[in-house]
Structures are given as C-alpha cells and as structure tokens.
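pinned: reference chain
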Amino acid sequence: MKIGVISKTNEKGQVVIPKYMRRQLGITNEISLNFILRGEGIYIYPVEEVLTPAQADNASYLEILKFTQGSWAKENWEGLRKKRKKIEKEASEKRKRKW
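pinned: its structure tokens
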C-alpha cells in the first residue's frame, strides 16, 4: 500500500490538508469541499459550484443545447426524409416477403 501523508485529527475531529495538496487542487478558504464515505475511506473533493435541483435540471438542459447548437443547421432535410422513406419501404417489403 502506498502511504502519502499521515496525520491525526484534533479533539474536534478536524484535519489539516497539507499546503502542497491544497495548492495542487486549488483549495482556498473560499472553496467548499465534498466529503464522500466509501468503504473504509473518506474521499474529499473540491466543489466548484453548488446548484439547486431546479438549477441543475436547467443547467444540464442548457449544456446539451449549447453542445448541440447548430448541429442540424446544415442538414439536407428533404434528402434525409427521402432516405428514411426508402429505408422504411424496404423494411416493409422485407416483412411482407417473410409472410
């Protein structure tokens, strides 16, 4: 097992995160931390942004819209409709032959 930095808690259960680790992760006194209990360990992650559930739903939807913005703008819709119609007709005829 690889051992990093060993520390003890004080009477209140508080632990100091070593300075070089705080610097590397960008943790300042203004950054919130997320504590996750996994198995027999605690994982600590810096939190960049806290969103309410409503904000999170909107944020996810907005990210998808931004990511896909303009994706369909240059499509040849008439050509796609014709291709789809051809594929559907071929599938229908294939089913008829199986009967």
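why pinned: Residues 7-48 form one domain. The chain has two domains: 7-48, 53-98.
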